[in-house]
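Justification of computing resources. Each target in the renewal requires a structure prediction run like the one illustrated here; the chain below, 687 residues long, is used simply to show the kind of job we budget for.
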Amino acid sequence: MLPLSRHVFPNLPDGGLAAGRIGWLVAATLLAFWGASLYTLPLWLSPLWLLGGPLLIFALTWRDANKRAEFRDWMRQNQRALWASDAVFVATFAFFLWVRLRNPALSDLEKPMDAALMGAASRATFLPFENPWLAGVPFTNYYYFGPLMSGLLLRVFATPVFDGYNLVQPLFCALFVSTLWSLGAAIAGSLWRGVVVASVVALFGHFEPLRQMREAGKPLGISEINWWSTSRVVPDTNEATRQIVLGSDGKPQFWTINEYPLFTLSIGDAHAHFYALSLAALLLCLCWSLFAPQSTQSTLGRLTHRRWVLLALGALLGAIVLTNTWDAPFYALLVLLCAIFTRPKYFDGDKGRANWRESACCALPLLLAPVVALPYLRTLQSPVKDPNRKLWQFELWLPPLDGFALFWGGFLTLWLLAFAAFWISRRAQNGDEVSRTTSIFLGFLSLCGFGALLSPSLFYINGFFGGDLRHQDTVFKFYLQAWILLGVAASGGALWMLAQARLRWRRALGALWIAVWCAPFLCAGSVLWMRAVGYAPKNSDGSVTLSLDGSFPRAPGERDALQWLWHHATRGDVVLEAFKPGSYHEFGRVSALTGVSTPLGWSQHVGFWGADNDGPEIEPRRILIESVWNWPDDATALAALKELNVRYVFVGDVERRIYRPEALQRLQSTLKPAFTSGATTVLQVPR
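Resulting structure tokens:
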């Protein structure tokens, strides 16, 4: 993609080498999304354009001798930045792959849900794909563009989800960090400063360790810090009294979610906000490219570089709506601000006409985004359908100052440092167009970042959680956006201004910066330590087995059965496995690790996805499932299997542990075994 991306991102030091990776993956997935949604291009054709598209672009660029020579010259001139870009990508991928190799099991937190969606997307032919935990029902109640991107990669490389998950997750970590590095290097004016910007935004934490040290009464080591509580820093208030409710231990009972990029990357859950990180970094790079001097020059056909970028921003905003709709408002505001500021003053010598045309083009991304997301928006069935319940609610809510300061103290101090450096050296910026555009771009990032930061104090979105947890998701989603926007503005701005400040100010502000980020560095170290080392399953001799196997540590027979199901289950097949109400347990593992739908998986999450909006779904299926596993008589059990449309019944360690042996024996004596390995059997239901 480099021959094309260097024209799209002319003001990035690597010519968009990093941004081009995630850019093409988004573009190819959008093509697959539209083709499969319109039932014109089945998803099994996606490898043709996912791999063939970049090769075609390269071939068209390489066929002309003059273009080849010019491209070689450009690569020689920028080889240091290109090597650095690849080094950041490979190093980030290798590190987070190492974390996954030490913690390969897809059984903790919400990885089963993420793996189930990824597997279902990789097996689908058209969209929306089938709900993996509610067989026979289209999956229209939750974001599925992120799992679709991952599912296409699994399909291209013919990789089962129980192995591919642990490759896809570090891949998106590397896409995010490397794209962030490219933008940081461009803003700060140095490849090494780009590493600092990417590290501060993506790999640092906050001041929560200070609170834990105060409560412990002593300095804590990295391995002693509670890494999970670093995502629960700002407490929520009681709905009636607007006061914090304390438990018997003297700590708040209800918390908002305060994830930050490092926590999201290291925890390993491939959620919607995880995929949105790399898309956000790409959007910032596209906004930055609008400020390039070449933005008004013709590049492809009759369209200027600026208009191509605006089209790309519209498509990307649509992808963000599909991936994590919470991100759309403030990123759309950023796009609009950058588009308005960079519109050319003159066009073809006709000032009045030019202003009208270019001003109209500023709205193009905002108009194009809902069109790009239209197939998803048309089929979306919102889980929140109560007519008496507003989608959002105004409320003036002031987060507790201590929690807010612990979470945001570092970035806000860094932002003030950058602003102070700008104020000190502002006179030196007069007449410098590069400095002017950089300061304007950083100002737009700051404006949108503070908007996202203050939004949860003005309103909250009515989701599944209300009452004393009403601010939980609103704070979660908007604070994560604010972290990226303010993080890039603060760290990039501080480094950019420090490079231009006088030596005495540079030393003083640099020392202050180091002092401010000591505690966040400790927080980051604790999260990485616990995820990579503390939680890694140990062998009897204390060693750690490195593995990509997401079914680890299940019995070898189950692994073989999962592999068999992955290869032999066809479209429409349903596998029955052990069921238990609720979520966050081992039930639903087969569908999670193969993508083959099951009649009912995590019932709590199925309810979150709106299963009961149009009629009862969960309870009747639960009764039918129990009638199969209890096997009261052949007629009743076979009728239940037929009603559930089950093709395969999975009998493994979990089923043998919770169901009566005599019932399992009757089941196995009636149904024909399709596959057997060790103590695991896959039974086939006659059609």
